Structures are given as structure tokens and as C-alpha cells.
Amino acid sequence: MSFRIEEKILIPNFNPFEFKKWLFSKNAKILFPTRIINSVYFDNDLKMFTDSNEGRVPRKKIRIRTYETKNFFSSKLSYMKETKITYYNNRYKKTEKCSTNQKKFNLGIYDKDYGLCKPNLNVVYKRSYFKIYDTRLTLDEDINYSKITGGKLSSFSTKEKDLVVEIKSQNINNTDYLKELFPLPRSRFSKYCRGIEAFLN
Fold first, then answer.
1. CB 10 within 8 A of CB 163
2. What is the pTM of this model?
3. At residue 187, does pLDDT exceed 60?
């Protein structure tokens, strides 16, 4: 469990290649190889969605994540259960390995604050990892959202129009430095909320 700063930047209609050129001009280094991230989010009657959309704190997001596959249940790799908790001025993420199958998946996940949470959204995207000095940065592109209803994944998906940049620092007193390093407007952005909103319209 670790506290950290996590700031997000949306880059509409921007070529990822050009953004990477800008990063390298600031002495960015590639931290890890680019990979596919596949997450399934859980909620109970959209309570987490509502809390996130309205900016309530504390709030949570619960998801199970795997890597390098666009089909959540085809992965031969490990699954990770992640619980993200947001407070007024910081957040932390708890990560634990888990095993999953379709039956267990459909039963849902019980949370002491939100009750029994069922799977309702699948998010798949490509993530690139960078480091500038002591600050980590990720670039997410080709983000696709698919609805899950009654444990079944919809064959229809919708694509995010923006690139999403996340700046992450373990130094929770580092905000002024980060603004100087990345002089770009911040945004309140949640893939979970954006995906749910796409299917509410």
C-alpha cells in the first residue's frame, strides 16, 4: 500500500509520436516496454461511478487486471486485484494477486463500504512507460470500452478519442515541481467513468 500523487493530462487529437518526441526533448527515458492492459471494473448500482463523478472523498475503484491480451479470460498470465482509494489530497493503491474464472467473476467482489460489486465495464488499452528524473509518466492510447451485463461482455466497444497521460510521484509534496516539469493543464479523468458515461448516453 503506497501513497502517491497522480495527476492526469488529456491530449485531444494529438499524435502520440509527437508527444513522445516532446518527452524525449525533456530527457525522458523509457522505463518499461509498451504493453496491453486489460481491466474489468466492479461496482454496485454505480455507487463508485457516482462518487467519482461527483468528486466525493474518500472513494474507491475496484478492478481486476491482466496484461498482454485483449481477451480477459484468454490470458495465461496472472491476474491482479487493485483497489484504488482517493482522499482529499492523496491516494493509494492496494494490489494483490488473485485467481479468477468465469464463475468467480460473475459472483462479484464484496467490499465493506460498497457491498457486493459486480463486473460492469471492460477497458483495454496500450500503455507506454517513461521516467523523467524521479517522476514516472505513462501514456495511454487506443483505449477501448466495452459494457459487461449479467457477466457477459458486449461485442460492441467504443473508443476513447483522447490520449491520456498520467504523472505519478511518490513524493506527495512535489506538486509545484511537477507543474514546472509538465506545464500542461490537468484534468479530472477516469477511464471507468468515461466508459460508463459512453454507455449511459
1. yes
2. 0.90
3. yes
Set out the domains of the chain in order of their start, with CATH numbers.
2-200 (3.20.100.30)
Give the list of residues 6+ apart from residue 159 with CB closer than 8 angstroms, or none.
142, 143, 144, 145
Spatial separation of the C-alpha atoms in residues 124 and 186, rounded to whole Å: 23
Question: How many Å apart are CA 66 and CA 73, to the nearest integer?
Answer: 9
Q: How far is CA 32 from CA 29, 107, 135, 174, in A?
A: 9, 34, 14, 23
Cβ 105 vs Cβ 151: under 8 Å = yes
Position 173: which residue type? N
| Of 73, 74, 44, nearest in space to 61 by CA | 44
Q: Cell numbers for 183, please give them.
A: 506545464
